[in-house]
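Re: export button greyed out
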Amino acid sequence: EVQLLESGGGLVQPGGSLRLSCAASGFSFSSYAMSWVRQAPGKGLEWVSGISAGGDSTYYADSVKGRFTTSRDNSKNTLYLEMSSLSAEDTAVYYCAKVSSNSPYWGQGTLVTVSS
Amino acid sequence: DIQMTQSPSSLSASVGDRVTITCRASQGIRNYLAWFQQKPGKAPKSLIYAASSLQSGVPSKFSGSGSGTDFTLTIGSLQPEDFATYYCQQYNSYPLTFGGGTKVEIK
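Workaround output, generated via the alternate export path:
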């Protein structure tokens, strides 16, 4: 069974930083590109970032470029999202997702709240 | 960037109705299109990938069609558990993009 388990969310002050993790199991993690997708309260889904299977290529939405960094450790089957210079507009549930290939899967999400 | 336009943004339907949701891409995406269902407070659930392939475990009342720029999701015989918001998403190229969602409500 495919499982994607996010962690690391929480309350952070504006201008602060946070690191999210996503532990993957049930599929060949190192064979697939992965993404982070977020959903602000009451809003639709917004793709945030993607990373190739080997980790050599990364992609970012304009809204987070220069502030967020995606990485992965295929030896640990784990995906990461480093977020900095956070603002209220970054408040959302962040999902780890295998959505850039066939047979997509989603994690359960982790809430990031940016507030003073 | 490829824009994904979903319609309608909401609809009201009755139990037993057949429902069709459309998704249009601003440029051709071959068949690299997925459909997701999301209920309040829950993560999205995969329904369809490659425009028409049913995700494992998803009932056959869900079906998808289309290629290029125009796609449809059809739900046959709507049941109470199907009332939710549905999203399309293209994975032809980065940045990946989602439609704005279609909220299916009970009439």
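The longest strand of chain B covers residues 19-25. The button fix ships in the next patch.
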